[in-house]
Amino acid sequence: MFEIREARWLAPNIRRVVLQAPRVALRHRPGNFVIVRVVEEGERIPLTVADADPDAGAITLVVQVVGATTDQLARLEPGQHVMDVVGPLGKATEIERFGHVVLVGGGCGTAVIYPQAKAFRAAGNEVSAVIGGRSKEHVILEDDLRAVCDAVHPCTDDGSYGYHGFVTQKLLELIEDGAVPVDAVITAGPVPMMKAVAELTRPKKIRTIASLNPIMVDGTGMCGGCRVMIGGEMMFACVDGPEFDAHQVDFEELSDRLTAYREQEKVAWDRLNQEHKDHECKLGLPESVR
Amino acid sequence: MSMKPAERMKIPRQPMPEQEAEVRAHNFQEVNSGLDVEAARLEANRCLRCKKPKCIDGCPVAVDIPGFVGAVADGDLGRAAEILYEGNCLPGITGRVCPQETQCEGVCIRTKKSTPVAVGYLGRFVADWARQHRRDGQALPTKTGKRVAIVGSGPAGLTCAGELARKGHGVTVFEALHKPGGVLSYGIPEFRLPKSIVKAEVEKLEAMGVEVVCDVVVGKTYTISELMQDEGFDAVFIANGAGLPIFQGIPGENLKGVYSANEYLTRVNLMGAFRFPENTTPVITVTQVVVVGGGNTAMDAVRTARRLGADPATLVYRRSRQEMPARAEEIKHAEEEGVVLDLLANPVEILSTDDGWVRGVRCIRMALGDPDESGRRRPVPIENSEYEIPCQVFVEAIGTRANPLLTQTTPDLEVNRWGYIDVDENNMTSVPGVFAGGDIVRGSATVILAMGDGKKTAAAIDEYLAGGG
To answer: Shortest Cα distance from B319 to chain A (angstroms)?
Structure first.
């Protein structure tokens, strides 16, 4: 059992959860992830580790509520526990000195780029972050990133905050009009966004790394459920990745494979919501009829 | 009262009571229900008490088979259990999953004229009796003060743990998944090996002082050198298992509805997807499933598909029945349950619907040519013999390759060209004090061979530690 130390909402559907997991905290490197199982009957899901504090023995997870399991996790408060946390898994980001590195994060992908930004900065790069959300309230970790980046460009689809437009538009501006040439792009977030980033940088021959988020079960290479095609070759994101050359990734296929359990995911989430509703209804009733 | 051999020869082999095929094809409860006391005693009396019994040599962990079988015949089940556990830490498991027909029973002298003694049934019977009549407060050996880390809680790791604990060594087993057992938990289905049995065997080891720590991926959470230098272990046994599933490399393998057998079985067994939505891990359940492969894993997958409602559940295998590596009992059970065997056939392409789901598999007919390196006749495709099998789920059970997770972070550890760990005659690796066994050394093998490695390595580790290691 792993205890939750802190929990708060970063955006309407994104929660920051700090967990006690000393071994993971000690060994975590940017790019690594963990597999979490919230309850006994629950799924194993891969989650981004946004930060690790080896001294406190704690890791920070940033969780977007997209289904039953993430919902269960997001409902937990400090002092409560999750059943299992295993990691750190996956290969760590290769931190090189590229020059000017632009990190592009969308939604909770912003949590993936935060530790990377820190590491790239420490390695002597100039680091810019382009982060996006539907509207102001969906832009996360801006202050954290400002502390470790040379420049942060928040973008909103509706123009309610920062740059009005998609992260890719802002990225294009940085590449074409920016005072400093872009030497490398690192991206994490929704598949269509990562695909658009890759398509944008491909003709410009800018090295681009994407952090992929396929469905996983064990996270140790044993099941092969997270297989992705990279330059026509089958790779397992959990042990060969999760980061790959974005220009080689078959994003179409990744996107399609992510929908494999859409129906079951809805069933499981509806069931959970019904349970919570029943529970709340009973709480509203006088004790005698509960 | 001793019986004459002729009398013993007359006793028929006792059949294993099992669930009706039509019933069990739709549930996940155990197929076999085990012999009762009467039948076990009759069966035990079929043993001819050979002067030079071959069965012990036929057993990879060298159980004193005539000894425990004799005790069953005498009605002394306590002694039978003692003898059995002396040679084998996990008899409740081996009695259920060992390929006895090629081991102890295969060399039984009775096979010359009749059927062998049902050693597997008797082993299972004694183990089940022992579990129900467990005596607490067994005397623990004197502690040696030495500590051994075991990587992986599958059959090799658990056996090694049990053997080392008996010698008084401190043992910690690290498991990557959230439940101990390795392939016994994620791979072998409930209907063949109930998880309660695995749990009980692990608890028995814990009662002997073995510590089992889940959620630790050695190579990631700890490196081998950290275990030895920082965590104070005197020796390490790597038994982290088979590893990554192999895909055939045919078109369509990334369609929705294509699984490796490892994923399909893990979802159902370890994650309990057959109880979805009570358990939130899903598995795609459809009417037609095709599994490719001929081993026990393929059998487990196709019988699981049948239980999840597939009709038909079809097994495609490129050679003929004689070459199938699966246990005879699994093939028999599968057929009884309505599994369709499509032999001498090989998938060449997985067919897609417009929206990326599996709609079928195109296969080609095979013929057997000359024997290959394995001694089995090589399957050769027959030209213009392609045909389609409609299915919505396609499962590949054609083997595994070495998992690089641990070897990547242990550069001193020498591996062969396939990535499996090199060991010497004592199962020691190129790193002093670090041993390895089971599938990470052998490639894909069986539960009992992994247990044999665990047992042999425990003896080697004990000797190594005695030498001051």
So the answer is: 25
**Element housing B341 (H / E):** strand B340-343
Give the chain B residue whose CA is nearest to the CA of A238. Answer: B405
B388-445 pLDDT tens trace? 999 999 999 999 999 888 988 888 999 999 999 999 999 999 999 999 999 999 988 8
Residue B244, classed as helix, strand or coil, is strand
Name the pairing type of β-strands A243-245 and A233-236.
Answer: unpaired
Which tokens in the block code for residue A246?
Answer: 């974005």
Contact list in B for residue A88 (CB cut-off 8 A) is: 220-221
Tell me which DSSP letter residue B332 carries. H
Q: pLDDT per residue over A192-223, tens digit each?
A: 999 999 999 999 999 999 999 999 999 999 99
Across the A:B interface, residue pairs with CB atoms under 8 Å apart total 117
Residue in A23, A85, A222 to test binding to B, most B beta-carbons within 10 Å = A222
pLDDT at res. A124 = 96
pTM over 0.90: yes
Phi, psi values for residue B330, rounded to 5°: -65, -40
Nearest CA in chain A to B358: A260
Contact of B190 with B150, CB cutoff 8 Å:
no
Q: In what order do the strands lie in the sheet with A151-156?
A: A163-164, A151-156, A126-133, A100-106, A184-188, A207-211, A243-245
Give the pLDDT score at B469: 63
3-state class of B55 per DSSP? helix
What DSSP string describes chain A? -EEEEEEEEEETTEEEEEEE-HHHHHH--TT-EEEEE-STTPPEEEEEEEEEETTTTEEEEEEE--SHHHHHHHT--TT-EESEEEEEESPPP-----SEEEEEEEGGGHHHHHHHHHHHHHTT-EEEEEEEESSGGG--SHHHHHHH-SEEEEEETTSSSSEES-HHHHHHHHHHH-SS---EEEEES-HHHHHHHHHHHTTTT-EEEEE-----SSSSSSS-TTEEEETTEEEEHHHH-SEEEGGGB-HHHHHHHTTTTHHHHHHHHHHHHHHHHHHHHHHHS-GGG-
Task: Tell me the C-alpha distance between B259 and B80, whole Å.
Answer: 43
**Cα gap B72→B47, rounded to integer Å:** 11
This model of the complex carries an ipTM of: 0.94
Sort strands B313-317 and B340-343 into parallel, antiparallel or unpaired.
parallel
Residue B366: enclosing H or E segment and its boundaries? strand B358-371
CA R_g for chain A: 19
Is there a contact between A198 and A207 (Cβ–Cβ < 8 Å)? no
Contacts of A273 (CB under 8 A, 6+ apart): A71
Question: Out of B222, B242, B276, whose CB is closest to A264?
Answer: B276
Q: H or E element: which one contains B405?
A: helix B405-408
And the tokens for B30? 């155990």
Q: Residue B100, CB half-sphere, CA atoms under 13 Å: how many?
A: 25
Q: Which of B443, B191, B437, B161 is nearest to B295 (CA)?
A: B443
As a whole number of angstroms, the distance between CA B469 and CA B452 comes to 23
Alpha-carbon gap: B467 to the closest alpha carbon of chain A (Å): 32
CA angle A48, A52, A58 (to 5 degrees): 105
Instruction: Provide residues of B within 8 Å CB-CB of chain A.
Output: 176-178, 186, 214-217, 220-222, 241-245, 247, 253-254, 256-257, 259-260, 262-263, 266-267, 271-272, 275-282, 284, 356, 403-405
CA nearest to B271 within chain A: A43
- Chain A residues with beta carbon closer than 8 angstroms to that of B221: 23-24, 27, 86-88
Is B260's CB within 8 Å of A42's CB?
Answer: no
Q: H-helix or E-strand containing B236? A: strand B235-238
Give CA–CA dist A241/A93, Å, rounded: 9
**Residue B466: strand, helix, or coil:** helix
